[in-house]
Amino acid sequence: MDDEFALRFGTQDNCIEIAASVEGDSSLPSFGDARLSILVHSNGFTGRNNLWVQREGLMAFATQLAKLDQTLAGDAKLISISPDELDLTVRAASARGHLAIFGSTGRRLQGENSSYPHAVSFGFEFEPSQLTVALRHSWLSQYVSASLVNLISPAAYG
After folding, report:
1. What is the pLDDT of residues 6-29, one digit of tens each?
2. What b/e sequence results for 4-26 when a residue is b if at least 16 CB atoms lie within 10 Å of its CB, and e otherwise?
3. What is the DSSP string of 63-111?
4. Rounded to the nearest 5°, which phi and psi values hold at 29?
5. CB 107 within 8 A of CB 84
6. What is residue 139's DSSP assignment?
7. pLDDT per residue over 27-37, tens digit each?
């Protein structure tokens, strides 16, 4: 994925990248919803998917991530509109400030006579500094409320 505003968590061997196309037409009921493009590399398994997430879910995820960034405690969850297309959690992995991301992404594909599930599950730890960068420089930054950003860590988010 070559999107400078993509959300990215990972290491050299394991990573998840999420690019977003946000619905910007305020006259539509889907205003603020986002079509996400996911690319996962996790311990030798690779997968990619395109899916939709509702605005309210993105706002809650961004708020939870901002709190996690400040406290290094708790978790943040993101779930797709359609069942089983995305179930992602970012959480504190230890009391020492380590963070982890885990979940799955997939979809059912229709064959000639039946549909078949295709998915990749993932899970790995990543550097906490990546969370700060994601909240400030990725598409996710538009979902973090300005008041929350200033309340939690004004220096971190500029």
Report:
1. 999 999 999 999 999 999 999 999
2. eebbbbbeeebbbbbbbebeeee
3. HHHHHHHHHS-SEEEEE-SSTTSEEEEEEE-STTS-EEEEEEEEEEEE-
4. -65, -20
5. yes
6. G
7. 999 999 999 99
Show Cβ contacts of residue 56 under 8 Å, excluding neighbours closer than 6 positions: none
d(CA 24, CA 21): 9
Bridge partners, 52 (sequence order): 35
- Cβ contact 28:4 at 8 Å: no
Cα-to-chain-centroid distance, residue 44? 20
Q: Which pair of tokens denotes residue 89? A: 């959690």
Residue ranges per domain, the chain?
7-152
Question: Which residue, chain included where needed, has tokens 């309210």?
Answer: 56
pLDDT in tens, 77-129: 999 999 999 999 999 999 888 999 999 999 999 999 999 999 999 999 999 99
Collect contacts of 131-134 with beta carbons under 8 A, ≥24 apart: 131/9, 131/65, 131/68, 131/69, 131/90, 131/99, 132/69, 132/156, 132/157, 134/7, 134/8, 134/9, 134/65
